[in-house]
């Protein structure tokens, strides 16, 4: 089932999410619906807060990035095959010199800005079977994970922009929260005026 994606302005996107246990109700259905929702919106990641649930859960599928011809065959291959579920994730280390990449977000359609992040992360998480992992990721995979991880921390990529950039896009963000935007996937706008 395709779920509506929550737009910027909804308080759930600013809350630090809470851990879940392996007996979380209908977790398999939730994961299936989240993947379906993400693919329907042509995303590479989706966090539970983006569908209105303040829980520490996100998923990633970087296959769409594998088509980038500027990447090596090895990079393309690793992106094409990377599909994961992250439950109760915790980034324990970020390393390297920050690099810029133009990020977007399904909760903030049509806004893309350069965000600086460290290139290498170490993350602890549970997978969909509640098996624990500690792994190191780098490059674009690390970038997508960091972006989705921020969601469960109550942080949006726009929060990481300079004060000037934030001022320049403030009106656009306000319009998105009011539903004054055309999107080709289901969304829920927190500040939309109700139709009578």
What does this molecule look like?
This protein has a single domain, classed as Peptide Deformylase, CATH 3.90.45. The mean pLDDT is about 95. It contains 4 helices and 9 strands; from the N terminus they run E-H-E-E-H-E-E-E-E-E-H-H-E. The protein has about 200 residues and is of the alpha+beta class. It catalyses: N-terminal N-formyl-L-methionyl-[peptide] + H2O = N-terminal L-methionyl-[peptide] + formate. Its EC number is 3.5.1.88. Removes the formyl group from the N-terminal Met of newly synthesized proteins. Requires at least a dipeptide for an efficient rate of reaction. N-terminal L-methionine is a prerequisite for activity but the enzyme has broad specificity at other positions. Its cofactor is Fe(2+).
Q: What features would you highlight for this structure?
A:
Peptide_deformylase; 196 residues; 4 helices; Peptide Deformylase; single chain; 26% helix; alpha+beta; two-stranded parallel ribbon; iron
